[in-house]
Specification:
Length: 199
């Protein structure tokens, strides 16, 4: 299972570009759209921490555990957020889609749904994953609803899973999509995106 990607994943609404340090200024601008780091239950970087955030993503890419992206809106041409295929386990053909955030103006625009479609296609159809996970904070209700809308099913809750930087302890909700479920999930995502385009 190859876990490297040198080119972008391109959709109708978004381009997922392999992240680089060149993206840092644009990501700093995107993260200020809605002051996303102020949401206590997310791990969105503050503007001054974006470079370290990208450097960590690139280190994960180098060790083969992640494929990080900057998300570019095709309509505006602007970088609007970031996302990542992460926790890649080639021996188990499992991985996770996470570290996802978007500026406020890009939310509820179809960008997230198409970005997830592109990454899921890559995971299942190129990397031949047998399962793709999604994880989020118990209190991040918007994220939990968005993951469920993708067609992922809740596997369970990891209680007292992580100690966050503010000292609070996170319960992590785990969802997944299996390779056997992927064809129907893909059909539904494509249907929803087509309807969104026609509204």
């Amino acid at each position: 299972m190859s876990d490297t990607l040198s080119s972008s994943l391109v959709g109708e609404l978004v381009i997922l570009e392999p992240v680089s340090l060149d993206h840092v200024p644009a990501l700093q601008a995107a993260v200020t759209d809605g002051k996303l780091w102020e949401l206590w239950y997310t791990s969105v970087p503050e503007p001054d921490a974006v470079q370290a955030y990208v450097e960590k993503a690139l280190a994960q890419q180098l060790d083969g555990s992640a494929i990080p992206f900057a998300v570019r809106s095709r309509a505006s041409g602007q970088i609007v957020g970031a996302t990542r295929i992460c926790n890649i386990e080639p021996e188990n053909r499992r991985m996770e889609i996470g570290y996802t955030w978007y500026g406020q103006s890009a939310q509820r625009t179809g960008i997230n749904a198409e970005a997830k479609l592109l990454m899921l296609e890559y995971c299942f159809e190129t990397l031949h994953a047998i399962a793709v996970e999604f994880r989020t904070h118990w209190h991040n209700h918007a994220s939990r609803q968005a993951i469920a809308r993708l067609g992922a099913k809740q596997d369970g809750v990891l209680r007292n899973h992580k100690i966050l930087k503010d000292g609070t302890i996170r319960d992590t909700v785990v969802f997944s999509i299996l390779n056997s479920e992927w064809p129907v999930v893909k059909q539904d995502l494509c249907f929803r995106l087509a309807r969104h385009a026609n509204t």
